[in-house]
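Appendix B. Raw example, untouched.
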Amino acid sequence: MILPIIAYGNPVLRKEGEEIDANYPDLKKLISDMFETMENSKGVGLAAPQVGLPIRLFIVDTSGFNEDGDQPELDDFKRVFINPIIIEESGKEWKFEEGCLSIPGIREEVSRKPNLIIEYYNENFELIEEKLDGLAARVVQHEYDHIEGVLFIDKINPLKKQLIKGKLNAIIKGEVKVNYRMKFPLIKSK
């Protein structure tokens, strides 16, 4: 089932997610619904807060990032991250333009370290420690921020953030066009 994406301005996007266990209600269905929602909205990652749940869960599928075919490691990078912990981030920070399904129409350069080590449970609650780099690491860092209550716009230059304030307010009011289901904090009165 395709779930509505929670738009910028909803307080759930600013909450630190709570850990869950294998008995979380309808976990397999939630994961399946999140993948369907992410694919429908043409995203490469989706965190539980983005569908209204303040829990430590996110999914990624970076196959859409490898349109040129020059990064084959992204083709098979489809994961479920439950209760993840970033153990280490390393390397020289690099900039890359990021966007977010909860903040449609806004893309800005964000600096992140290129390498990370992360520990998480997969969908079968098997504990995994994984080293990631490049775009795979970046997508995971972006989604991890969501479960910490952090948005990519928090990491941009303050001047740039000031310049996009009008666009952010339009998102809060639902005054943006998207081609996927969204739930806005304030709906424009008619």
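End of appendix B.
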